[in-house]
Amino acid sequence: MTNTDAIVVNKVKESKITTTDFDNLTFGKTFTDHMLECTWRDGKWETVEIKPYGPIQVEPSCKVFHYGQAIFEGMKAFKDAEGDVFLFRPEDNWNRFNESAKRLAMPEVPKEIFIAGLKELVHLDKEWVRYGEGLSLYLRPFMISSENGVAAAPATEYKFMIIMSPAFAYYKGDVRVIIASEFSRAADGGVGYAKAAGNYAASFYPNNLALEEGYQQIIWTDAASHEYLEEAGTMNIFVRIGDTLLTAPNNDRILNGVTRRSVMQMATDHGITVEERRVSVKELRDAANEGTLKEIFGSGTAAVIVPIKGFKHKDFVHELPVLDNSYATTLMGALKDIQYNRSEDKHGWRVKV
Ligand SMILES: Cc1ncc(COP(=O)(O)O)c(C=O)c1O
Predict the structure, then answer these.
(1) Measured on CA atoms in the order 95, 96, 99, 105, is the torsion positive or negative?
(2) N- to C-terminal Cα distance for the chain?
(3) Pick from 55, 74, 146, 201: CA 20 to 30 A from residue 100's CA?
(4) Cβ-count burial of 151 within 10 angstroms (0-12 exposed, 13-18 middle, 19+ buried)?
(5) C-alpha distances out from residue 126 to 15, 50, 129, 213, Å
(6) Residue 273 backbone phi and psi in degrees, to 5
């Protein structure tokens, strides 16, 4: 056991890496040798521990099971040709994590724990970050209320943890979507802008219905009128009409995506006109009918950019054209080049581990 800068590190005796089949990974099923754990009790964060990945013990009355105080982040580490490992805009995730914490009445996690802990953990398991197109290490910081007792009130004890999973490209196959006209993922004044676990639970049932109809994702619309596009499943949404790239402005129902901000910057860098404004379903359908709707894509950490092949809204069904020079392909390439340290990092997004 070693104690480096207040992080206690307890290493595994034998790594699982030699028995891990990296060619046949299922997303999010395999975890690296170590995890990070830190408990908040009596109003303060205790010692940060890095220890072997494994079960944690909680009682059945643990508050997270009853009142759902649970938040998380999704981020990635990438390896370059020289074997150096980089995080992508980690402070953006740290900031968003604390915004989620605030909204769920949970304690904020200081930078010395979130960022320093993340770097130490990734560094320790850096052999698990594989080099190659689409390969990365998916990082999952999360926090749960860990106090025992079923009184409906914010907990007095929380656990902040980080687990890590080797990943390939997330989505496989074509993605077609249904535009929501009945269900909502988030409400005005609610927690949609937070990465709260419950937001995902609430989306599974409508998503199952979409899957039964042969659609892989739902385009979420505003809860009040279902007239404006908001998110593409668990991604932010981009629509290309003519040569202009449109994306919904952030509000309290939309997760403020790190990839979205990066895509907007990359597009501007490439001379593409980006408009951050409300896009109505009517505008989308009119553009589809007029032939000016060229692309729809989602942006998110898991897959960077996911082109959408077609959509359904009520009884209107439309297939997107196949383009030679799509914005999706250009912007995905530009972002990956930064993530894998293949191009100049003009905006200072890479953080070496
Ligand atoms: C609901 C939702 N919207 C958007 C995103 C995209 O955010 P980011 O680009 O920060 O991964 C995510 C997460 O990936 C998400 O869960």
Answers:
(1) negative
(2) 21
(3) 55
(4) exposed
(5) 12, 14, 5, 41
(6) -75, 125
Centroid of chain to Cα 278: 22
**Entry pTM:** 0.96
Q: Which pair of structure tokens corresponds to residue 200?
A: 């995902």
**Pick from 55, 51, 47, 38: nearest CA to 12:** 51
The segments of the chain whose pLDDT lies below 70 read 1-5, 170-172
Q: For the chain, how big is the Rg over CA atoms in Å?
A: 21
Residues 6 or more apart whose CB falls under 8 angstroms from that of 267 comprise 245, 274, 327, 331
Distance 99 CA to ligand 1 centre (A): 14
- State pLDDT tens for residues 16-73: 999 999 988 888 999 999 999 999 999 999 999 999 999 999 999 999 999 999 999 9
- What pLDDT shows up at residue 127? 97
- The closest of 272, 291, 195 to 236, measured between CA atoms, is 195
pLDDT at 6: 87
**Long-range contacts of the stretch 337-342 (C-beta < 8 A, 24+):** 338/88, 339/76, 339/78, 339/86, 339/88, 339/136, 339/304, 340/78, 340/79, 340/80, 341/78, 341/80, 341/81, 341/82, 341/84, 341/86, 342/80, 342/81
- What's the pLDDT at 148? 97
Closest by alpha carbon to 83, among 120, 32, 132, 121?
132
The letter for the amino acid at 152 is A
Q: Helix (H, G, I), strand (E, B), or coil: what is residue 245?
A: strand
Check if 301 has its Cβ closer than 6 Å to any atom of ligand 1.
Answer: yes
Amino acid letter, 63? K
Q: Cα separation of 176 and 239, whole Å? A: 14
Number of the ligand 1 atom closest to the C-alpha atom of 260? 9
Tell me the two tokens of residue 132.
């190659």
Which of these, 65, 97, 93, lies nearest to 201 by C-alpha position? 65
What is the pLDDT at residue 173?
78
